[in-house]
Each structure stands twice: as C-alpha cells, then as structure tokens.
Amino acid sequence: MIYSADRNCGSNTDAIGSGQLSSNEHQERPPHRSKYLHLSKDLMRKFLYFIHKCQCHVCFYSGDNKIENVELLNPVNLSLECIWTGNQNKQPNITGYWRKGGVEIQDSRVPVDPENQQYTLKRVFNIVSEEHLGNYTCVFENEAELDFILAVPQIGERREKPIVSYVGDFVVLTCKMEDNKPVPRTWNWFKNNGTDKEQLFEAQRYDITVNGRSAKLKVKDVSEADSGVYHCAAVYNISTSTSKMHLKVITIWEPLKPFLSILVEVVILVTAILIYERSHSKKKEAEGTNACFFSLF
Amino acid sequence: AARETQTRPDGGWGWVLVVAMFVSTSLVFGLMRGLGIFFVEFVQYFEESAQAISWISSIGLAAQQFFSLLGAALCNAYNTRLVVMTGGFLSGLGLILASQATCLVHLYLSMGVLSGLGWGLVFTPMVATVMASFTRRRALAVGLGFSSIGLSSFAFNPLFQLLVETYTWRGALLILGGLSLNIMACGALIRPECRSKLFVSVGGLTEQIITVSLLCERPYLTYALGVTLLNFGYFVPYFHLVAHSRQVGFSEYRAAFIMSAAGITDIFGRIASGWFSDLGRFRVVHLLTLWTALAGVFIMLLPVSSLTRSYTVMIVISLLYGFCSGALTSMVFAVVPMIMGVERMMGGLGLLQLIESCAGLLGTPLSGWLRDMTGNYTASFVVAGSFVLLGSLTMTTLPHYFSCAEPPPPQRPVLVDNSETLNLELRQDGCSPEFNHQTAEQRER
Q1: Which strands sit side by side in the sheet containing A58-63, from one edge to the other?
Q2: Which positions ≥6 away from A38 have C-beta within 8 Å?
C-alpha cells in the first residue's frame, strides 16, 4: 500500500498513490470541502485493523500483521499507529517505545494505558529523505512488536538470468514499474565500473527511452567490453529504487561449437549409412539376389 | 514395363525406416510445435505486432502442406532418398539462414518458405515409404512413427527455452538448423529398391482428371471445408500458448511445460482414439466430430482457465487439449478413404492438403491480429476454438452422417491406360490400415 501526502492533499490523487485504494478514495471524496479523504466502506471492511485517513501533510497507518510495508514517494509526516489487543494479564500500564533499524529512538518511551482493552502506541515521523527510510518497530515492552518497513516502491520484475547478446548486435535492457505502483519522476541508467557505478547518458551507442513507468536502454554495436552489471534507477522525490541486471556478450563461436559438432555427426552418419549399404548391396550382388543396383540418384 | 507387385515382408529394414520416420517427423512437426518459444523472443527483438510475427510460423506450416504434393510427385520422378535428403538439407538451411535475419522478411523467407519447402519434401515421402514397407503391421508402424510428434513436442519446448536462454534466438536457430540436418541421415536410410508404390503420378492426365473430379462432389467439398475450418484454429495453441502463458505471468520454463503437457497427451490421444475406433462401436465420422468438438472447447477454455491464474488448472486444460488434438488427428486420416474411395486417396489427400494450407497460412496471423487489437490472447483462442467447433459442425453435414451404419465408399470405374498410374496397384495393396479394417467390417455386416 502506498501512502503519501502532498501539499494539495485534497485535490491531487496522484499524491496518494495509484492502485485500488486511490481510485476508490477518489470516488468517495467529497468535492473540495473536506480535507479528509474517506475510504469506501468496502475497503474499510477489507482491512479490519487498518485505520487510515489522509490529512494534509500527514498519513496515518496502522496494522495488525507482524510486518507492514509502507511505500513512500514524497517527503511526508507519517503517523504510525500500533494497536495491541493485550493478553490475559491485563496489566494496567506498559511501556512502549520505537526503534529505528534496531536501535531505540531517543525520547520515544511513553507509558501506555489500556483503553477499551486495547493498547495504542502512536508517533509522528518526519520522513524527508533517504536516511529517514528504513525499518521502524513499535515495541510494547516485553509483550509485542510490529515492524514497519518504509521504502520507495520497488521495481517488481527482477531478471535473475543474464541477458545474452552477440558482438555487433544490439540489445535492449528494460525496467518496468508495475501498474499498481506510482510513476517515477524520472529514470537513470548505470553500469558497474570496477566498484563504482557509472551513469550512462544518451550517446552514440546508447539510446535511452523513458516512458513513464518503463525505461529502455538500447546498446548498439555491442562489444565484449559491454558485458557486466547494469542498474536502472527509478527516481522518486524521496529516494531512488534500483534494479540490476547482468548483460553477457558472446561471440558467434559459442553456438557455433555445438552446431559444428552436430554437422560432423550428420556427415559421419550419412557416410556410414551409405558405405554400409554399398557393402551390403555388393554382397547381395555377389550372391545374385539383388535385383536393383545401388545408386544415390 | 511390367512391374512386379511385391508384397513387402513386414519387419527387417522396415523397422529401421520406422526409426527414420520417427526422427524426421519429430524434427518437422515437433520442431514446428516448439516455435511458440521463438514467438515471444521475436516479438521482443523486432518490436513487431503479434500478427506480423505469426506470419513466420504460418508461412512455414502452409509451405509444408502446400509442397507435400510436390514432394509426392518428385518421389515418383526421381528417387525418394534424394527427395528426403534434399528436404532435410533445405529445412536445415532455412533455419541456419534465419539465425542471421535482420528483419522480419528474412524470417518469412528463410524460416517460412525455405524450411517449409524442406518440411514438405520430407514428411509425405517418409510416411509413404513406411506405409509401403509394411502390410500387416502398417498401423503399428505408422502409429509408432507419429508418436514422435507428441514426444518431441514435450521434449522440445523446455529444450528450446534452454537454448534460447543460453544462446539467444539466433544461436538457438543455428543449432536447430544443425539438428534438422539429421533428416538427411534419415533420408539416407531409404533404399532405392524400396520405391514406394503409393505415390500418385501427377503427370498422368487421367489421374489429374480423377483428382479434379473430386471437387465436384459434395462429400469431398464438405469434408474439405470442415478440415479447412479446423485448420484455422488447430495450430493457434502451438504458436501462441507459450506467449499467452508468459503474458498471464508464468515464468519461461513453466510456460514451456504447459506446452509440453499438451505434447504428452497427444501421444495417448492418438493411440487411444485409434484403439477405440478399432473397437468398431462407433463410426469414425462420429468419433472425428466428437474429438474435434472437444478440442475446440478446450482451446476456448485455455484463456478462461488462465483467468484463475492457477498453474494446475492450465496444465490440466492443456493435457485435455493435447489428448483431443492427437485423437482427432488419427480420425482425420481414417475418414479420408471413406469419403474419396481408395483409388483417389492419394490425389485426394494431396488436394486436401493444398486446400487446407490456406487456412494454415491465415489462422495464426488472424489470431495474432486479434491479440494486437485486444491486448491479450483471450479473443484469439476463443475465435480459434470456435473455428474448430465450426469445422466439427460442418462435418455433421456429411451425407449419411446420422445413420448408424457406414455408407459404402464411392466406387469409381477403373481407368486402364498405359501411363504408370497407381490405380491398379492401390486396389491390390489397399491403403491405410483404417481402410482395410473398415472394408473387412463391411464384409462382415
């Protein structure tokens, strides 16, 4: 699920993110009057423990699963809320705190009192740039914890196997952001150069085409030096999401090896068959039983 | 010159020819059925529409059917061995040249026309040679030879996927070209003395008159129409199912295995339907329409089942489709002598293949065009399935369809002349094993 808030939270659905949630929210939204975007009743029913409203600059998010993924595109004040239903012990108060990346956040310890048999822990985080993304955990001390993973939308398709191309041919590397994820601001392409990543720009041999959700890098007149690891980067306001792929350049000799061995096998077979038949028919001639004579044509 | 009518002794070198037929048929039809893997790669590389790419395989298929008649004629004029070896060489050459293609037209000409010509010169002569080498065990020999189609379709799909992944489509086509050259070894096994007697001398004027007279007969026309309609849809899954599975979201090998599944049951379908029709409980035409109708239904179910996104469901439908597809192929062959009479079977078959080659040519590109228009393969498969169903319905309009007993095959007066036609020899030897069975059955009734 994608959450973000923009300055114009009330009128711009793009800021909310794409996919099923946004379209429903768009339909239910009262025109320009309220700053709240309401969820349709359907979605309310679906996500039982999810309560979220979008208010200008702030998005609420709460969950009941062990790990929640939150995708963000823009800088936002994100409010994370954890609700714990308690257990048999029914303790009067519990300490709750937040962790980021496994390290406890300073000044985040608060006492939590149960309300209607539920313990609630809420905090607003100011997510501005890449270092604010990561793994946030709300902890009910010694009782329960819940992880929120804040990240940019990840590029879905990962190509595990290397892309193969021939010397002198062209090859097209593509990266596509799934339809239910927001459109990146732009795309960049990189190639591994030793331990560094070198950015590729539109040049004689490189053709870069960016089309909203997809980006293509066409490498023309490929040579063996073009082999290596390439990265495509989807740039969002808050951070960049990358995906890598491996390009392998081979010469024509690679498939030529099995081809030539098959060719040799065919020649040997055909010759053997014809020689066998010649000797066989000569034998039959000698015995006088062969009516036909051996001939290829 | 008088020619001895030798009764071929079953066995011996005949079984070697069965092996040759097995290998060559798998390299023709098994290979054709694996081209669905290349379809996906071509669409990506050439950035052309599905319809434009579909022409490649459909030209190849149509060329194979179209040149079958030529292959038969050349065998009579020259040497069967030479024709098959040339066919093997041409089909391999076509694929080798295709690996160097830089535009679609290159593929149309090399993989389509040239390889198709090669395949046409290989298939019919090879089948006829095997049929000529056996008398009693003909059905078994030919059935064994044809079983290669299903087996190779099963094995080739994942193999082609592996080749494409390792060497891209260029390298894969080069290697396939080399593999196709093995057909030359199969051709070399044909001995000159085993000149097939089942070939029609197309040069003979009388034979041409006999063949053309078929066009004036309603049963033949109806059957030809039914088979043509069938051809429009029959090949669509072989060329588009892999692409469809990939579009639905299955990985490369899973998609390849969906196609393989159809290949496995193809074998069983052929054998089972042959065995079942031999039991004699039902008329061959009825069985043919049954299998054809079922095949049409399963083709239509293929895109529907993919809506469930369940791999198991797709495999099951593919298995069922493969079974019906193999089953109907056996029956198509068996019905032929009943419609045309034995004397005209070879000429009639050649003419039939000629007519149905148009459908083979147009069917797949039509399916590709529908995909381009709608964005997915649902419409393509539904239309293909309905063509197959239509073909099945057309065959119900054959004369005497609804009677329970087999009508007598049309009798033709024997034309005696001096040219070396096969009329006399055909009547002595009999043709397909199915025909032999049916006449025996009629005698019993």
Answers
A1: A54-55, A58-63, A76-84, A119-127
A2: A25, A28, A29, A30, A53
B247/A contact by beta carbon, under 8 A: no
Residues contacting B438, CB < 8 A, separation 6+: B284, B337, B338, B406
Map residue B417 onto helix, strand or coil: coil
Residue by residue, DSSP assigns B138-163 as HHHHHHHHHHHHHHHHHHHHHHHHHH
pLDDT at A123: 83
Q: Where is pLDDT greater, at B192 or A103?
A: A103
CB atoms within 10 A of CB B221: 14
- Per-residue pLDDT, B72: 76
Looking at beta carbons, which residues of chain B come within 8 Å of A266?
178, 181-182, 184-185
Report the predicted TM-score, pTM, of the whole model to 2 decimal places: 0.73
Residue A83 pLDDT grade (very low, low, confident, very high; cuts 50, 70, 90): confident
Tell me the domains of chain A and their CATH numbers: 53-151 (2.60.40.10), 163-251 (2.60.40.10)
CA trace torsion A18, A22, A27, A32 (10° rounding): -100
Tokens coding B327: 């089953």
Q: Please report the pLDDT score of residue B132 as a whole number.
A: 76
With CB atoms and an 8 Å threshold, state whether A256 touches B177. no
Interface check B307 vs A, CB under 8 A = no
Instruction: Output the pLDDT for position B162.
Output: 93
What are the structural domains, with CATH classification, of chain B? Answer: 14-189+208-397 (1.20.1250.20)
The CA distances from residue A31 to A37, A40, B11, in Å, are 10, 15, 86
3-state SS of chain A: helix, strand, coil percent to 5? 20, 40, 40
Q: For residue A277, which residues of chain B lie inside 8 Å, CB to CB?
A: 191
Contacts of B81 in chain A (CB under 8 A): 296
Q: What is the pLDDT of residues A139-169, one digit of tens each?
A: 887 777 788 888 888 887 777 889 999 998 8
Q: Please report the ipTM that was assigned to this predicted complex.
A: 0.74
Q: To the nearest whole angstrom, how far is the Cα of B34 from the nearest Cα of chain A? A: 19
Question: Which residue of chain A is at minimal alpha-carbon distance from B101?
Answer: A169
Partners of A146 in the β-ladder = A138
Q: Please indicate if any CB of chain B lies within 8 Å of the CB of A206.
A: no
Terminal CA-CA length for chain A: 74
- Closest CA of chain B from A162, distance in Å: 8
